[in-house]
Amino acid sequence: MNTTTALPLNRPADIADLFWSFTWLALQGFGGVLAVVQRELVEKKRWMTRDQFVEDWAVAQIMPGPNVVNLSLMIGGRYFGLPGALAALGGMLAAPLVVVLVIAVLFSGVADTPVAQGALRGMGAVAAGLITATGLKLMGALVNNVMGMAACTGLAALTFVSVAVLRWPLAWVLLGVGGAACGWAWMRLASPPSDTA
Fold it and tell me: How many CA atoms lie within 13 A of 56 on its CB side?
């Protein structure tokens, strides 16, 4: 039995809950919000299962714009329609905008110092580590994927090699590998399930 769906899911209490929840997410998400969003929405608030998160994150990833903003729009719209989508979007953008403007003003005077440059490199390494750790944690959700764990792992490896090693443009990788993945998933969904009983 899948433990991520064993407990009943929660939902935001109202639009204000949605707004403040996404504001809190956005304020925690320095350098890489994926780890924070997954922990808050799946593990703490239980607004979605791990499988739902992986599926929604995949859609948010390929849509134009920042993926976490896309995800907030999807979740807000799912629960409260257009007002919910706008509330979640406002929560994602309002407070971080103020914080970024203040940091930009303060940072402009020290941006060229070696200490500031070293701090930025260190923050980049931490953000990469957070994203990698979250990706590894979410791999368990691929067991339930219609394509199967082997195909998902192969597609992930092919995508990594295409982008990181071969340096192919992301748009072409999305069209090529993503298109092949969509086709394979569609074929698997269209084929009747085999009766093993």
Answer: 23
Q: Helices 15-28 & 67-107, crossing angle to 10 degrees? A: 50
Is 72 strand, coil or helix?
Answer: helix
Residue 184: which residues within 8 A CB-CB, separation 6 or more? 147, 151
Please give the Cα distance from 110 to 117 (Å, whole number): 9
State pLDDT tens for residues 20-32.
Answer: 999 998 888 765 6
Q: Tokens in use for 148?
A: 């199967």
Q: pTM, whole model, 2 decimals?
A: 0.60
Q: In 3D, which of 86, 67, 93, 74 has the Cα closest to residue 15?
A: 86
Instruction: Kindly tell me if the per-residue pLDDT of 151 is higher than 70.
Output: yes
| Paired tokens of 77 | 């719209």
- Taking the alpha carbons of 51, 55, 56, 62 in that order, is the dihedral positive or negative? positive
